Amino acid sequence: MKTVAFAVLLLTASPAAAGETSKVEDLAWMAGSWTQEAGGKVVRETWLPPVQGAMAGVTQTHRPGKPASTEFSTITTGPGGVTFTAYVTGQPPTPFVLKQGAPGEAVFENPDHDFPQRVIYRTCGDDLCARIEGTINGQARGMDWRYSRVR
């Protein structure tokens, strides 16, 4: 089983975050640079604002004693709607289609992927919270991040 591990972002709410998201431009609230530091590990993720229906993101992860890793993501409109695609080294691109979420939340899903099956973004005051979740060998699993804005 290949596992996609990547960090995702949630940014401060905007009018689009409170209503239905139907186009990439509605996710402009994700644009910016964010970071999380814990246990010597530093994760920094940056999303460019949407331009002509596309957003691009990059994540750098630094772990003590290990080489830095980078991952790339896009948000575009695909056959199923607004789609978050993860580009992880050594794996094929993995698409997740946006589903309707609660106000201030965006949920991308790919039920056919091994792990994760969902990428969830939500507002956390001035911070951003992110979660990936799904099942591994029939067991529910999840990973959470809380990011602060890079100043």
What is the chain-wise order of helices and strands? HEEEEEEEEEE
Q: Helical residue percent?
A: under 10%
Q: Give the domain tally.
A: 1
The name of the CATH topology is Lipocalin
How many helical elements? Answer: 1
The level 1 CATH classification is: Mainly Beta
Mean pLDDT across residues: 83
Terminal CA distance reads 38 Å
Strand count: 10
| Biggest sheet details | 10 strands, antiparallel, barrel
The CATH architecture assignment turns out to be: Beta Barrel
Please give a structural write-up.
With 151 residues, this protein is mostly beta strands. The protein has a single domain, classed as Lipocalin (Beta Barrel), CATH 2.40.128. The protein has one helix and ten strands. It has a ten-stranded antiparallel β-barrel.
